[in-house]
Design a protein that fits this description.
It is a single chain. Helix 2 packs across helix 4. By secondary structure, the chain is an all-alpha fold. The protein is 45% helix and 0% strand.
Length: 127
């Protein structure tokens, strides 16, 4: 069937998807999936989800080593951010100064504290 239609048998596809789902569940921080002990049950005619996946793992000889996902970290813990909110020149009462006059100390502070070589340039297509 694989040679004629390039489709895998349905059972193989379902086993693969079942195994992928189980691996995703193992990466979740819930201990039910990691520490589940398979016990024999009476009057059970078919396997449960975990039993079937463990049988697939044994048949395919897949190791049980699962690498943990990367933990989510705050970017401010990783990167040291140089942040200063005061201007180079001291302005005592902003409400008495025109906005065009306040623009000069602001630009001067930006060029003094943050050199142009450290800037991140973002180019857009004009949209």
């Amino acid at each position: 069937m694989l040679l004629l239609t390039r489709d895998k048998p349905f059972q193989d596809t379902m086993e693969m998807k079942t195994f992928i789902l189980f691996e995703k569940l193992m990466l979740v921080e819930d201990f039910y999936w990691k520490d589940h002990v398979v016990t024999a049950r009476q009057l059970k005619t078919q396997y449960g989800f975990i039993q079937k996946v463990l049988n697939i793992k044994n048949d395919l000889v897949i190791l049980g080593d699962i690498q943990p996902l990367l933990t989510i970290r705050n970017p401010l813990e990783v990167i040291n951010v140089n942040l200063r909110l005061d201007l180079v020149e001291t302005i005592y009462k902003k409400r008495h100064v025109a906005p065009s006059v306040l623009k000069y100390p602001t630009l001067e502070t930006i060029t003094a504290r943050y050199p142009t070589t450290d800037w991140l340039h973002i180019f857009t297509e004009g949209s």
